[in-house]
Design goal:
The complex is a heterodimer of chains A (about 300) and B (about 350).
Chain A: H1 2-9, H2 11-14, H3 20-55, H4 59-62, H5 77-83, H6 92-124, H7 130-139, H8 149-159, H9 165-190, H10 194-201, H11 206-235, H12 238-243, H13 252-259, H14 267-287, H15 289-300
Chain B: E1 4-12, E2 18-27, E3 32-36, H1 43-51, E4 58-63, E5 66-67, E6 78-81, H2 93-104, H3 108-121, H4 137-150, E7 155-159, H5 167-184, E8 187-192, H6 195-201, E9 204-209, E10 212-217, H7 219-224, H8 229-234, E11 241-248, E12 251-254, E13 259-260, E14 272-276, E15 281-284, E16 292-301, E17 306-311, E18 318-322, E19 333-338, E20 344-347
Parallel strand pairs in B: 3-8, 3-9, 6-7, 7-8
Antiparallel strand pairs in B: 1-2, 1-4, 4-5, 9-10, 11-12, 11-14, 12-13, 14-20, 15-19, 16-17, 16-19, 17-18
């Protein structure tokens, strides 16, 4: 027995002599893969790197020809300019960043607060014409938002919502609710309804059962969904530029775009503002990356 | 403890599907009552209506003397065990068991005493400090049963509690549940789609199909005299042979010359089908006394028995259960003989038992 056991183990080292052609082929392929991926990464990331570089260059280095990649003087003046006005006090950009935080934050909370219970209801209850309702909800996202800019503008003018944060919050929430309902319904479907049944038998009401048992299990999904909604609201440009006009209401995307188009463009400031603008979403997405992946795959692969 | 009366229960969903179609059940105090049927037959909906998790469209449900139509689940004094065990994932076994009692607001000492008692009954000792994810399926289901026990409810409702377990464990748990129910004497309504489970557990079985009750009876009654063609085809493995017959010369004659003893009081003017259990037939040497000529189509040897599929010139092949000692080769010419008593006879058009 001992001998056969030894023989059974022996193929281990032999495996190193597997056909050389296949091995080198595998190595060749992986070298090619790495090379292609590197090229792709450089192409994809170069604008980002260039933006970051521009944000820490002095203006004369920004315009230098040939372009300076490494040997320039690092300055943080542009970042100071993003937040502080030239005469002291907060800059108009910093106001618009604050506006973005308020608008994106509140609209995301609103969409989540409305969308999660709706998704739960669609998942758990026998709603009349459920499929048609869900399709209708989804259909509001079929057309590009740009199509409704003019009608919304006219409606908002009647309602006095033009150039208000509330106006932007409402329109962003309206765009995010259908998305939230659909994505969250996938998550709720994954949570066995028996938890709620058992809790109800134990003396809780439907809503208590939802809050105490289903909701905690949904938190990863809610996080993922909220991040998507937040990114949409944070990045939104078209409605922001149509529906706001004054600096104290305007959000960051149109404000940054507004920096370009004068007689001279302060590219350093544009780049610094863009870096500041991109950071919160990156950080937030990084923090919830695990849930984000789970969210995308869970939402996509339905039972 | 209490019996359960279900009267004219009807459940229609908003989308128009009728899940339960005027079901009447009368479940005795201390009875182990099984609802059996294929998926979508309404058995689970009926159970959920009894539990109060589903509101019936019309009809009454009484637990004991109480009309519970408008009571929320918690006030019906019942406990339910689910197919998916529904243990709270963030609680240890001990707290999972104590949970319903704490929700009721019982004093601590009594909670501990009842939890310990249930743990002892279900032999949960070493599992008490684990969370559900660290328990196997069988262990989780034992915890779920214990959680139902601690409530000391008037009735247990079991929704396919063993379906997710593997075959061996399922047999063990079946014995355990039956023993437990006998010990406690608490009314139990048990839903399953597994006929073996139904036969071995139930004091009485209700067979449901398309939201209607097809038959209610003891396992023996259900097996011996299925009330409809659906029940005949559903109970038994292999199921009953359904043989087209007609009455002639005081005998029931099937195709291929098969002769059966007719039950009294048969109507003559209708198409009839006889239900014959595989063990009520016999494969013999060709030309044996009272046998009709037939041919073996295939033979399944199951160790303790042989199932022959036999072609005797009828519309369908016939299945015959034989002891494993009797061997006929496939395609061999044989004889087929009816050895049982009078068969159950069904009307072809109504699909119901006529005699």
């Amino acid at each position: 027995m001992a001998v056969s056991a030894h023989e059974a183990v022996s193929p281990g080292p032999v495996r190193d002599h597997t056909p050389p052609a296949r091995r080198s082929g595998g190595r060749g392929r992986s070298v090619l893969e790495v090379a292609l991926l590197t090229v792709l990464a450089v192409v994809m990331l170069f604008p980002v790197l260039w933006m970051i570089e521009t944000s820490i260059k002095e203006n004369r280095d920004v315009y230098a020809i040939p372009a300076k990649f490494f040997d320039f003087k690092v300055t943080l003046d542009h970042f100071r300019d993003v937040f502080v006005a030239s005469g002291g006090g907060p800059s108009t950009l910093s106001v618009s960043f604050l506006n973005s935080v308020v608008v994106a934050g509140v609209s995301t909370v609103l969409a989540t607060v409305l969308g999660v219970p709706a998704a739960w209801a669609y998942s758990r209850f026998g709603v009349k014409a459920k499929k048609d309702q869900l399709f209708f909800i989804l259909s509001t996202r079929f057309m590009p938002p740009v199509v409704v800019v003019i009608p919304i503008f006219l409606m908002y003018r009647q309602a006095g919502l033009i150039n208000t944060q509330l106006g932007l919050i409402l329109i962003y929430a309206a765009f995010n609710v259908p998305f939230t309902i659909w994505m969250m319904k996938g998550f709720v479907d994954e949570v066995p309804p028996e938890y709620e049944d058992a809790a109800m038998l134990d003396g809780y009401t439907r809503l208590q059962a939802f809050r105490r048992y289903t909701l905690p299990l949904l938190l990863p999904g809610i996080a993922a969904t909220a991040v998507f909604a937040l990114i949409f609201s944070w990045n939104e440009f078209v409605f922001a530029i149509f529906l706001t006009s004054s600096d104290n209401v305007r959000t960051a995307p149109p404000a940054i775009a507004g920096l370009i188009g004068g007689t001279t463009v302060d590219w350093g400031l544009v780049a610094a503002a863009s870096v500041v603008f991109a950071l919160p979403v990156l950080v937030f997405a990084y923090l919830v990356r695990k849930h984000l992946v789970a969210g995308v795959t869970l939402g996509a692969v339905r039972r | 403890m209490a019996g359960i009366e279900v009267t004219a229960l009807h459940k229609r969903y908003p989308d128009g599907t009728v899940a339960v179609d005027h079901v009447d059940l009368s479940i005795g105090d201390g009875e182990l009552f099984v609802m059996l049927g294929p998926s979508g037959c309404g058995k689970t909906t009926t159970l959920r209506a009894i539990a109060g998790l589903e509101r019936q469209t019309t009809g009454d449900i009484r637990i004991g003397d109480t009309l519970v139509n408008d009571l929320p689940p918690a006030e019906r004094d019942i406990a339910m065990v689910f197919q998916f065990y529904a243990l709270y994932p963030h609680l240890r076994t001990r707290d999972n068991l104590a949970f319903p009692l704490r929700a009721e607001g019982l004093p601590k000492a009594e909670v501990r005493e009842r939890v310990d008692e249930a743990a002892r009954l279900m032999r949960l000792g070493p599992l008490m400090d684990r969370r559900p994810r660290r328990l196997s399926g069988g262990e989780q289901q034992r915890v779920a049963l214990a959680r139902a026990l601690v409530r000391r409810p008037r009735a247990f409702l079991m929704d396919e509690p063993l379906t997710n377990l593997d075959a061996e464990l399922r047999a063990d748990m079946r014995t355990e549940i039956k023993h437990l129910q006998g010990e406690l004497g608490t009314t139990m309504v048990y839903v399953t789609h597994d006929q073996v489970e139904a036969m071995s557990l139930g004091h009485r079985i209700a067979i449901l199909n398309k939201g209607r009750v097809e038959q209610i009876g003891t396992p023996l009654e259900v097996y011996d005299r299925p009330a409809s063609l659906f029940c005949a085809a559903f109970i038994g493995s292999p199921p009953m042979n359904l043989i087209d017959v007609e009455v002639a010369d005081g005998k029931l004659r099937g195709q291929g010359g098969l002769v059966l003893t007719p039950p009294p009081g048969l109507p003559r003017d209708r198409g009839l089908v006889a239900g014959v259990r595989p063990e009520a037939l016999e494969v013999t040497e060709p030309g044996a006394e009272r046998s009709v000529p037939a041919r073996v189509v295939s033979a399944e040897w199951l160790g303790d028995e042989l199932i022959y599929v036999v072609d005797h010139g009828g519309r369908r092949d016939v299945r015959v259960r034989m002891p494993p000692t009797v061997r006929f080769a496939a395609d061999a010419p044989v004889g087929l003989r009816h050895t049982g008593g009078t068969p159950a006879v069904y009307d072809v058009s109504t699909e119901e038992l006529v005699a």
